[in-house]
Specification:
Layout (H helix, E strand, L loop, with lengths): L3 H11 L3 H6 L4 H23 L3 H19 L6 H13 L3 H16 L6 H23 L6 H19 L1 H6 L7 H6 L4 H5 L5 H24 L9 H19 L13 H14 L3
Helix pairs in contact: 1-3, 1-5, 3-5, 3-6, 3-7, 4-6, 6-7, 7-8, 8-12, 8-13, 12-13, 13-14
Length: 280
Amino acid sequence: MTTPEQYVQEKAAASGSSFYYAFLFLPKPRRAAITAFYAFCREIDDVVDEVRDPGVAATKLAWWRTEVAQSFAGEPRHPAMKALMPHTAGFGIEAKQLLQVIDGCQMDLEQTRYLAFPNLAQYCHLVAGVVGEVAARIFGQTDPRTTGYAHKLGLALQLTNIIRDVGEDALRGRIYLPVNELQQFDVKAHELLNRVYSERFVALMKFQAERAHAAYDEALALLPAADLRAQKPGLMMASIYRTLLREIERDNFQVLNQRVSLTPVRKLWLAWRVQALGKI
């Protein structure tokens, strides 16, 4: 019989995500909390990415809303929630934050285009900013200003994801690049859906990458010195994802036909370097 703790551990490890490498260096209680929270986020994400029927996906997300309410009322049913609930009070994790993550994934069911960057930023706030806010608390936030850093870093990570996954998302009929920016660079939606590579596309992606780099710089500038040590897992994520972004740039944005990724060894090295040397 798998325990809730084993379930979330396997869920986090199986994802192969860069987040997993950042968690390895945490003390046990914090690692247990972030692993459970991350597993919850993966569960919600999987509903949108793996369930082909939008009606079924919406029903599953509605079930998760009920599950969050029941869990905070003391009756969790899902192993991810059973693993997470013992940590909510100690780390200040609130039901509304989990519901916002669900709201973000709900947007994926209802929206496949974003007119302008402010619309996209609202989506990023829900699926990444709120996640960063919860993670910062788990890592050991002491300064309220760290929340601003966590939200900005969440935006930077999500923008990197969007750049990396342009081709993959297009296969699902989703385009996260703002419509007015596609128009600005004269890139047609059908070109992305049909994976048509062009100089116009590269120019558009350079513009997206500059915005992501600016978000990383802003995030790092917002992190108070008092929380620098505690927030190392987030800085590991910044190091891994920014290295990935630079790889994509070096590759001239060949993201329509492939998913650029770093090897596990390289991710571990980047995480260790932040842990040992404090360098990004």
